[in-house]
């Protein structure tokens, strides 16, 4: 299938790096202190990563369907990567909306921390047609 390994790279990278970025920035800015208590160490970090992976499964399935249907369209790989990047950001924001996150300045930090890695990996990762 077109782009399955690409999609898995985008999903795993954005979940892992997004979580690490969120925890680091939250710790440095002293926001979300309940979530980034470093006394809990690795178990808490692994829990947050697991939580991020589980909560993004619906978004990944939507991206998978998108890649399946876009396979038939004759557009460039760079255009597909840009579309995936845009759709992934929209799905990230939608996930937070569905979870009921209020969009205050501190909460916007979480969204930015997960959107940045999505954009970077979606544009930088290799995507090949089958």
Account of the protein in words:
The protein is mainly alpha-helical. It has one domain (4-124). Helices cover 75% and strands 0% of the residues. It is built from 5 helices and no strands. Helix 1 (4-29) packs antiparallel against helix 3 and helix 4 (77-98) runs antiparallel to helix 5. The longest helix has 26 residues, at 4-29.
Count of separate DSSP helical elements: 5
Q: Give the H and E element order.
A: HHHHH
Mean pLDDT: 84
Approximate helicity band? over 70%
- Characterize the quaternary organization of these chains: single chain
Count of DSSP strands: 0
What are the low-pLDDT stretches, counting only 5+ consecutive residues below 50?
none
Q: Tell me the span between the first and last alpha carbons.
A: 7 Å
Please state roughly what percent of the residues sit in beta strands, choosing from under 5%, 5-15%, 15-25%, 25-35%, 35-45% or over 45%.
under 5%
Q: From the alpha-carbon coordinates, what is the Rg to the nearest angstrom?
A: 16 Å
Number of domains: 1
Overall outline: elongated
State the major sheet: none
Assign the structural class, choosing from mainly alpha, mainly beta, alpha/beta, alpha+beta, or little secondary structure: mainly alpha
């Amino acid at each position: 299938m077109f782009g399955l390994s690409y999609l898995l790279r985008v999903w795993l990278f954005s979940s892992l790096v997004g979580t690490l970025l969120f925890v680091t920035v939250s710790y440095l800015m002293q926001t979300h202190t309940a979530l980034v208590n470093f006394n809990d160490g690795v178990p808490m970090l692994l829990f947050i990563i697991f939580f991020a992976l589980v909560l993004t499964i619906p978004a990944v399935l939507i991206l998978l369907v998108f890649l399946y249907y876009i396979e038939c369209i004759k557009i460039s790989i760079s255009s597909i990567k840009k579309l995936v990047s845009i759709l992934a950001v929209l799905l990230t924001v939608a996930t937070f909306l569905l979870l009921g996150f209020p969009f205050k300045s501190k909460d916007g930090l979480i969204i930015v921390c997960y959107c940045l890695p999505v954009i970077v990996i979606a544009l930088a990762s290799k995507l090949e047609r089958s």
